[in-house]
Structure formats: C-alpha cells, structure tokens
Amino acid sequence: MIKVNYIESDGTHREVEVEEGVNLMDAALDNLVPGIDGDCGGVCACATCHVHVDPAWIDKIAPMDATEDAMLELTDDRDESSRLCCQLKASPELDGIIVRTPAGQH
Amino acid sequence: MTETVVIVGGGQAGAQAAVSLRQEGFAGRVVLIGDEPVLPYQRPPLSKTFLAGELAKERLFVKPAAFYEKVNIEHILGETVSAIDSSQQLVSLSSGQTLHYDHLILATGGRVRQLDCPGASHPQVHYLRTLADVEAMQDKFTAGARLVVIGGGYVGLETAAVAVKHGLKVTLLVARPTPLGRVTSPEVGKFFVDVHRQAGVTLCCNTGVESIEDDAGDGLVAALVTDSGYRVLADMVVVGIGLLPNIELAESVGVACDDGILVDEYGRTSVDNIYAAGDCANHPNPIYQRRLRLESVQNAVDQGKAVAATICGKDKPYAQVPWFWSDQYDLKLQTAGINSGYDQTVVRGEISSRSFAVFYLREGRLLAVDAINRPAEFVVARNILSKGLGVCAERLQDESIPAKALADLPAADEADSLTTENTAPKGAQASTQSGVQKTPQSNAVEHDRVA
C-alpha cells in the first residue's frame, strides 16, 4: 500500500492508503476526500480532479500528456504544480506524496 | 421542521442532486429511489472500458456506499415509483410504501428506443443502457463471434470499436448516410466510417433492418434482413438507436412535457415543488437561446447541481456549454457546443492525420467544435462559447496560431463586428440578427470548470 496525503484548502489533512496502480482520483473518492469529483470517471475529459502536487514530489510523478495539459486549462487556478489526479497512479516511488485540493473545486 | 427531498432516479443526475444538496448545506432528509438494484453508476464506460473488460465494476459507481452513509443520503434501490400525488406531496413505491416529500426531483432518465421490425424480440437482440444489459452480453463477447450492431450513434460506434478489438466479426448498420449524423457533420461522420472500416468493421450506411429471423429455429443465431436485401447472420445483435425520455410519471401529475420534462433554468417544472434534471429534462439554454434536452454526463451533473441549489434557496441557474466525449480505438472525440443550424465548417488540421478539429459556425459565430485527438481545440472552444467571444474562420484554420490563442482576436481586425471585448455578448441587438442568439448580459455564462 502507498500512502497518499490529501490536504484540503482549509488545511484538513487526510492520509490514505492506496493500492499500487490505483489512480489518485479513484483513491480520493474511495476515501471520501472532498473537492475531487471525477465526473468523467477518470478518462481526462472533465478536469474536475485538479490537484496541486507538493513541490517536493513534482519530479517523481510521470509527466503529463497533451490531453491533460489541455484539460488543465479549464481549471481556475492552474500553476506549475497542477495535475489531474486521475492521471496519477499510486506507485512505490510516490509513497508519502502530498497533493492539495484547490479551493474552488466543488 | 425537517424537510424531505425525494429523488426519483438513481443515475448520474439523481446522485449529483443528492450529493449537491449536502454540499449546499441541506440538513433535511434526502431519499434517492432507483429502479436498478445498484447504487448510482456512470454509464459512459458501459460501452467503452467496462464492455472491454478493462474496468472493474466497483469503479463504475459514482460514489462508494460509505459515502452515502457518511452524508446521510438514504437510498431505496430496485424499486419503481408507481404514482405521485402532488396535492398531498406523496410518492408511492411499487412495494406499496409511500413517502412524503417537500421537494421532489425527477431524475428519471430515459429508456432505449426499441427496434420495431418483425422479429425484434429475438433472444440474441440486446440493448445497451444499463449495467445489467452489459453483464448480459459479456459472455458472448468472445473472439470470432458474429456481432451486428444496429445504430451509428455513440453507443453503436463505441460498441463496434470494443468488439472488433476483441476479435469479434463486427457488422455495423447505420440508417443515415453517415454515422453520428444527428450530432456531427458529414465530414466527421465520414472520418469515422473510414476509421471503423480500417479497423476491420463491416460498416454499411443508408441501411435499415426490415426484419430479424431466427436462422436455425433454436434461437441461437439471428438473421437480419436489411432493406437493401442482404441477410446478415449474428450470434449477437446490439441495438443503439437512441433514448426516449422517461416522462410518464411527470405527465401523470400534470407536469408540462415536450421532448422531456420542461424545466426552467433553475430546474423547476410547471408544478410546485417538483424539479427535473438529467436526460429526462428539457431546459432553456441561454447560450443557444432555445430549449435543449441533452443526454450527457455534463448535463446530468450540472443540472443536478442547479436543482440542489434551487432547493437550498440559492441562485445558481443552469447555463453551461454542453460537452460530450467518445473514445474509440486510439481516438478521443470531444465535442463542445451544439452544431445544429451551422452554415459553415472550418477544419483545423489534416483529417488523415487522425488529429483535427471541425469548428461549426453560423453567420460567423462559433456554435460548436468536434475535436478528434485535439483537446486544446476543445478547451478553447468551450472558453469561446461560454464567454460569447467572436471568432475568425481564417484564424481557426491557421495552425501557426496556437489553439489556446484562438480565443483572442487581434485588436487590429475588428472594427467590423465581432464582439471581442470580453464576456458579455451584445444582448438584444446581436440576437436579432445573429443566428447564434446571444444571451443578455445578466445571463452571460462565466467561464467555468463545469463542475
């Protein structure tokens, strides 16, 4: 199991255990993490699972593809730490990763 | 006094309304009634990754069971609502149970349109709408099996794509001259014809089914007789010829219906305290200045949110750019907007490269885009449509301009017309002459994540 830390905009911190290979959007839904909707079911079509990845972890995650890059333009507060977490799969290298959910995503 | 919201329909719209009621702070009782025996799930994967066996069933659910418990959403599954009494504000269930409501949300969705030719009830004929539908066909989804798909909409095309990848021998019968004829253009339809044929699908356009015979008298093989005189054998038939909105409950209590349950921008029907959302609802869309009934996740989610907000006394009218997606083979088709009434298409990119966008314009204004493996064009079109921005056909076509920049018109070329200065369209005067009726400022849609 891989530990994933979700931090909400109000500072609420949840550490959840995620099976390897499960994406961080599904893991958030499974663990009732608010602020992550995943309306399209994880096919990078809706941009409702936006997270900011903690800077310490940015270099450890797989780079984004063109679809994710384009879809992120639909989010309000995109920055260089932005990712759609349906595209981030839990793996041993990400054990302990910290992601923050944006304020506006409800 | 505790208020009760009863939601009839356990699909995406019903689930969203329930969740959004809690997010908006509704403290009363929320009861979700679904006629399927499972918690609300997502339908799009049914004809895509779930049919392909690539997605576990538990991944279909909109929310896990624990979520409903945590936020105290009651659910009654596998039961239908048999009657509504709007004067007493009661719903009766098939079990005989009755429930009082203060607010009633009809999220009744739709049912598949059925074939009506002779032999249409052959045992090998399947429809694809529910989880149970797909589970019933998965055993027969084996390499070498002969599959005939009837219908060239999203469901038909996606089913054909999954099947041929699994080694089935697939014939796709399309009644119109091209697939996706109702929602896209002949160019895009023709592209999908070529894609499917190259993948090994036998695709016949302009072909209807006259009758279905039983080939050997044992119910195992269906023989489809087409209106062009062919006889095609099938171990399985999948029919995807559209959806009919479930409006009967609404009509039974005098709720006004016309191609769906008529709602206003807040999701309210013509009867007090009754609302509707999702595939069954027909709403006034301020961007297109006409009524639309949409069958999509986006619509279900956004209308579910709007209705919940209305019940909570908040002013969040539904005013979104419709969007859709379809996955077939290596292709992601993303559509923003509704192209109905277009008088010009602009193709950006080479169709043969399997990465291009078709923009639909009417009187020079953008109505919609079909983006095939072009997410940036999809995104910028949503932005243009939601803000009511002007476009220039030459620029849309010009690949030296990055897609992202298509929302910005250069300051120099604009005296003539296009409402470049930001979000608010020119309201009344534009709407009198433009085919794309623009909404007055008060209804202008903000750029929004649609979620």
Largest sheet of chain A: 5 strands, mixed
Number of strands of chain B: 26
| Helix and strand run of chain A | EEHEHHEE
Regarding quaternary structure, what we see is: heterodimer
What is the domain tally of chain B?
3
Measured distance between first and last alpha carbons of chain B: 31 Å
Low-pLDDT stretches of chain A: none
Fourth-tier CATH superfamily name of the largest domain in chain B: FAD/NAD(P)-binding domain
The percent range for helix content of chain B is 10-25%
Report the average pLDDT across residues of chain B: 91
Shape of chain B: globular
Number of helical runs of chain A? Answer: 3
The number of helices of chain B is 10
Assigned CATH architecture of chain A: Roll
Q: Which fold name fills CATH's third level, the topology of chain A?
A: Ubiquitin-like (UB roll)
State the distance separating the first and last CA atoms of chain A. Answer: 28 Å
Instruction: Indicate the overall shape of chain A.
Output: globular
Residues in helices of chain A, as a percent range? 10-25%
